[in-house]
């Protein structure tokens, strides 16, 4: 390839990039009103949908898993026991959505639920790399959500103690606080996220519409040059 041909290709690439940039700027200038409309519509729709949802409340109870009766254990047992606990944290957390744990919760609190339906309101997770369990309960009443979270964690504590024969314990760090507001009424956040999505979508559509005639003209020009080349040949 000669230096002249390489220079020609570079110049053509530069012109192509300039054309693409001009298409984008032209599209944004031409369709700015539609882009703003799509942004506003997406944000408004998200805000309305969020605001009309039935409010639900999320309460969280937390607990620490450790070796049972640590004062009576030698140091080497505490060390090896800590690693043993970390290896089983996921299993301990999963107890929070099992029937043996939730059935007593339903009975003790007199809930109009089954263990299976109640599990849909509960998220029970462990913190990676830490002997820490978190139970989050989402319910239609803030006090009920807190009471369920505390009861689930208490039943998990009993289950861990029984399964590990007293060698491992789950100790709650404190009572769950009733939430002060709904957890599904984040109107501003949802509206901003949806508005950003509407903005991006509007820009893509506008650029696509503006680029279509340009691409058609480019194909036509390439076809004409090819035809002239064949005729000259």
TrEMBL record:
GO terms for molecular function: protein tyrosine kinase activity. This is Cyclic nucleotide-binding domain-containing protein. PANTHER family: FERRIC ENTEROBACTIN TRANSPORT PROTEIN FEPE (PTHR32309:SF13), TYROSINE-PROTEIN KINASE (PTHR32309). The keyword DNA-binding does not apply. Residues 129-149 form the Cyclic nucleotide-binding domain. One of its GO terms (cellular component) is plasma membrane. The chain crosses the membrane at residues 187-211. It comes from the Bacteria. Keywords: Membrane, Transmembrane, Transmembrane helix. Signal peptide: none annotated.
């Amino acid at each position: 390839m000669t230096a002249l041909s390489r220079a020609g290709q570079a110049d053509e690439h530069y012109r192509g990039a300039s054309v693409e940039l001009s298409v984008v700027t032209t599209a944004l200038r031409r369709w700015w009103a539609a882009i703003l409309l799509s942004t506003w519509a997406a944000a408004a729709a998200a805000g309305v949908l969020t605001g009309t949802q039935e409010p639900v409340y999320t309460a969280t109870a937390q607990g620490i898993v450790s070796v049972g009766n640590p004062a009576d254990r030698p140091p080497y047992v505490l060390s090896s026991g800590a690693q043993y606990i970390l290896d089983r944290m996921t299993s301990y957390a999963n107890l929070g959505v099992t029937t043996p744990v939730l059935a007593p919760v339903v009975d003790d609190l007199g809930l109009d639920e089954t263990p299976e339906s109640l599990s849909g309101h509960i998220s029970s997770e462990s913190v990676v790399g830490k002997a820490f369990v978190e139970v989050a309960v989402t319910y239609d009443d803030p006090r009920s959500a807190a009471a369920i979270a505390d009861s689930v964690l208490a039943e998990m504590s009993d289950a861990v103690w029984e399964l590990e024969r007293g060698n491992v314990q789950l100790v709650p760090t404190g009572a769950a606080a009733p939430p002060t507001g709904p957890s599904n009424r984040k109107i501003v956040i949802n509206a901003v996220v949806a508005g950003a999505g509407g903005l991006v979508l509007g820009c893509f559509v506008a650029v696509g519409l503006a680029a279509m005639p340009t691409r058609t003209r480019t194909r036509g020009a390439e076809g004409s040059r090819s035809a002239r080349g064949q005729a000259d040949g």
